[in-house]
Amino acid sequence: MDRKLSFKSIILHFILFLGIFISLFPFFWMVVMATNETSAVYSVPPKLTFGTELFNNIIEVFESTNFIGSFMNTVFVSVVATVLKLFFASLAGFAFAKFHFPGKNFLFFFLLATMMIPSQLSLVPNFIVMETLGWLGTFKALIIPDMASAFGIFLIKQYAEEAIHNELMDAGRMDGCNTFRLYWNIALPILRPILAFFGMVTFMGVWQDYLWPLIVMTDTSKFTLMIELAQLKSLYATDYALVMTGSVLATIPLIIVFLLFSKQFIAGIADGAVKS
Amino acid sequence: MEAGRYGLKTDKKLQTRRAESTLWKDIVRSRTLYLFISPFYLLFIVFGIFPILFSIFLSFHSWDGIGDMSFVGLNNFTSLFSDGVFWRSIINTFIIWIISVVPSIILGLIIANLINSPITRFKDFFKVTYFLPNVTAAVAVAIVFSSVFSTHFGLINFFLESIGLERIRWLTSSVGIKVVIALMVIWGSVGYNSILYLAGLQRIPKELYEAAQIDGANSLQIFTKVTLPLMKPIILFTVIMSTISGLQIFTEPQILAEGRPIQGSMTIVLYLYEQSFKFNQFGYGAAISWVLFIIILFFSILNWKFFQKPKNEGKKLNHGS
Known about the structure:
The complex is a heterodimer of chains A (276) and B (321). Chain A has helices spanning 2-34, 38-41, 54-64, 67-98, 104-114, 123-133, 140-143, 150-163, 166-174, 179-190, 192-208, 211-216, 225-235, 240-260, 262-275. Chain A is mainly α. Helix content of chain A is 76%, strand content 0%. In chain A, α4 crosses α8, α4 (67-98) runs antiparallel to α11 and α13 (225-235) packs antiparallel against α14 (240-260). Chain A has a single domain (26-275), classed as MetI-like (MetI-like fold). Chain B has two domains: 2-59; 85-320, MetI-like fold, CATH 1.10.3720.10. At the A-B interface, α1, α4, α5, α6 and α10 of A face α1, α2, α4, α5 and α6 of B.
């Protein structure tokens, strides 16, 4: 009985680790190529071990492209967009969750309905709007249109309804808090877990966004990482070491953010789906 | 009598007036709240409603973005329907979607069940590691896959040759590139699906499994008769999500097909992008985006209808437990 069980357990873990191997292999391969010279890629059999060229490859990436600049651009856009989205989504989510006001139900239903519209529908006209406003090639085009997210408002409203107790709101009112003080002093600290989750999702989403920046970032000095990376790939297609080093550098921040908060992140993803 | 009737009338008028004034007072009292929710609606008017109306208008015009617009009626749509590349892009998008979504769901179910097994150890490690591909930038992933599947120096072809098989032109054949794109989508989405299915599995009450075992059901029967019906809502959720993202696939084919003029990887959004921003055919692009919207809408409704009945069954079972 015991042996049979452990045999079953070995098979089960073997399959799971095989899956892990496939999941991690592209990362492994990326790092192998980033730490070797390009010639290693063309060797037969292919080199499957880490090399010592990472530092040189990084310097070459920095020299042949505006990688540092686009890295800073991406950090700036991701951070600013995330902070603004958190602020506007929590304000609206809090208002929808804890107050009654005329037209509330209709306004909230309308907000939900807008989530059904695919963003590609307004790709062309929004480009023209950006052009008309003179925002082409500026960070405004990446940050402002998407600043108040319907998804974020929905997510925070659902959380706030249960998490913020009415007694606490009443106590705050008795202490003479106005609506903004209720939001700032009472709601925000309670909403911290959902804000952390939504913040992570937003940060990662903005970081790796590709189509919209590709269209509106016409100024090379304002390129984001993903655009720079695609550019690197088309310019140095055969220089794999260079392109892979760029990919590693562009991916590392995402992986770090994910690994730091993986527990909350996974719990948040699972929670959202189970509830909906 | 007259005075009474008159009085009654003024009373009613007064009431409605009072009701109006309390509504108005409510609105004024809630002005801070309207201010709180206003950013979304203001932005939606400028970057949502206006562009949508404008894209309806655009789709009936021919415009290169610089010169004058000329009204062409339904011409954009009629030429769209006789445009071979457009049809190809629709077919490609669906092929890629189907060959990626089906394996991704099946693998996701398998992995979720394996992780959920009571004898499995390192559960947190598996969850995190399987999810990792999901947070990786599609541009970087496409670059890695293009190297792994490269015809002459790719690992996969090296492996195929070393076991005596022939090289496959993964990136330059119409079938090959679809398979590579689908593999990328599967690689990125299996972990996400697994996490969701796992959350669903953990919510199924243990008593149901015990009852099925007592009734003499085997593992397969338990899976198809107990697990699957209860999981249907969450499977529906992943199907809808992957339909929406699958029909909008862009980054993977765009990066892979870069510099390779083959139509095997032309997808709807890639075609929309090329027509609008490479060839500046804004009217034509707007028409494409409307067709895309209708396709997405149609499939969302279809998915929903298809899964609705089992979903109710699942709910009933949930209540019963």
